[in-house]
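Progress against Task 2.4 (sequence-to-structure conversion) is shown through the following example record, which the project officer requested during the mid-term review.
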Amino acid sequence: MIYANPKFELFFASIFALSLFYVWSMKRRKALARAFVDKAVLAAIAPTISAARRILKASLMAIAVALALFSLMRPQWGFKWEEVKRRGLDILIAVDVSKSMLARDIKPNRLERSKLAIKDMVAKLKGDRIGLVAFAGSAFLQCPLTSDYGGFMLALDDLDVNTIPRPGTAITAAIKEALKVLKGADKKFKVLAIITDGEDHEGDPVKAAKEAQREGLKIFCVGVGTKEGELVPVIDEQGQRQFLKDREGGVVKSRLNEDVLQKIALNTGGAYVRAEGADFGLNSLYDKRLSNLEKHELESRMKRQYTERFQIFLAIAALILCVELFINERR
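Structure tokens generated for the chain above:
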């Protein structure tokens, strides 16, 4: 015998406590009766009172409650083998880890806010496999496609602007890395979500998006930042807080480039959203678009399906309660 909800066994302590309370109340009732009238006289003035019947009713009630609690534990025995199929999508998330993602036009900064939004989305996943690509001047597979969401979270926590040593932002490299990871997968089930400020410094991301479209890869883009832009804070070698500067020594102001992200999404049949305030956009992308995409079979295995037996104990409890109703405390 196994139990589907063994946590309910803790409530059996309450039955024991109630039983002790009932014994105490019976003794107190007797003490009060004796204080009021002599024991020999009590039998004469209240001849119909039956202590045995009171005890019987209380015992039946305790047994019925115990059986009801036992049924809540869902006892099971006997089983049959059943094939269980897990269906879902293969979702790759590419996160921009260039220094421009340290800009604080989204609090606490673009990168940390992106990581928090990804964690919120992962909490919604039900059977989908998820992978992580980090990109800056190049791209790197940080976490392969997996249904181990705990392992994915560890890889996500390790992301920072030092993950990719090569500076810059190469969305093209992220798309090519995704194509490499998803190579051979069915065209209908390839999904890439790119989270970036869109400041591409290398390659032609729109051309790469057209190649992705031929391979059946749908790309969804989340634009992080503001069009007005923000200075990028960095820590120098002396540990002092400075602002990022270009080769000429001018202070760099990072701005959201929505045009390139919209073109990437449009060319692949995906969608573009802009991260604003509390609504980062990743959750709405999953709820409205990704969760509605056709899912494929990721895993099939045989599982023991145990037979529920709680009905037996619940029926006995109900029967005992019915019997208890017809037992009178008086003779």
